[in-house]
């Protein structure tokens, strides 16, 4: 599957989804039952079952070695035309003469490919956002009528360099095509959706992230208590006790999310960031089995922690997701120490200066272990089983 089909498939899936829901509502509205609540519940159940069946068929479709398009609707990666004719009128002016009349451009073995992206506008309607097209051909012939004396010279020049000539007029041709294609796509989407408006203020993913924040708090990870730490070296002993970290659940989406499909693999690139993270702990240092002991408190603040990652998932959901890239960014670190007397100032100076100077090196050192740990967790996720368990028709 070529790269050119990635957004065509996504748009097609969206249109099929909306069309199925609209058709289902039309069919269900003709059914007469005594209770409107019963009708609503019945329609909802039937809609969910049909969509579940469609989703499961889509999953099974991509089990094939070389799946083409979608179940019941094969989609090719581009359009192949044996011949395409471009007709119009021209005007040619020179010092000695002026000619005008019709012209014909014949393109043979034409291949057209394009990408189209959709977006929810402010009014809640889905419309075409960007369209990119490209046209390639094997041979071109040009015929200008009424050229007179210049006919053979002019047409010989054009036919000797067809690619150069076509590249000169291609932007004009495509600009007109973009307008017409956008109108057609927008018109079909509006008819299929029946004027349904989609939320443009809070995306479904942002709502999912908000639910994830609640889940993190409900599982007891914010605030999060770290296990007590005890380390002994010879006569020295150090303890870190009652350590709490707050702010872990303050993560949110940063920037746009990029989703693409290439070679039967879906890739998602997104960045997650946190707000300020706070931490506090009690420490104790002793020497000589408790002969000399100092204890105190330490508080630290991290401005933010951002993670940019790319995850790939094969459309054959039997395969596990893969994390391809992970980039961590750590904000400024501030530490306040109490209990060590004069050493508090030395400790604060070292901790506040060194980590901020070395935080990029620290993050680079942490990226590979974190990436490995995340991949180990992903290897345990059976995406296909999760989807089938949740969306199997009743």
How would you summarize what this structure contains?
With 394 residues, the chain is α+β, with helices and mostly antiparallel strands.
Task: Describe the protein in words.
The protein has helices spanning 6-29, 36-61, 151-160, 162-193, 204-218, 342-378, 383-391, and strands spanning 79-93, 98-120, 126-136, 139-144, 224-226, 229-233, 236-246, 252-262, 265-273, 277-287, 292-302, 305-314, 322-330, 333-338. The two termini are 33 Å apart. By secondary structure, the protein is of the alpha+beta class. Residues 1-34 have low confidence and may be disordered. Strands 5, 6, 7, 10, 11 and 14 form a six-stranded antiparallel beta sheet that branches. Strands 1, 2, 3 and 4 form a four-stranded antiparallel beta sheet that branches. It has a four-stranded antiparallel beta sheet with strand order 8-9-12-13. The chain has three domains: 3-61; 79-178, TULIP domain (Bactericidal permeability-increasing protein, domain 1, Super Roll); 204-391, Super Roll (Bactericidal permeability-increasing protein, domain 1). The relative contact order is 0.09. Helix 1 (6-29) runs antiparallel to helix 2 (36-61). Residues 1-23 form the signal peptide. It holds the Pfam family Grp7_allergen.
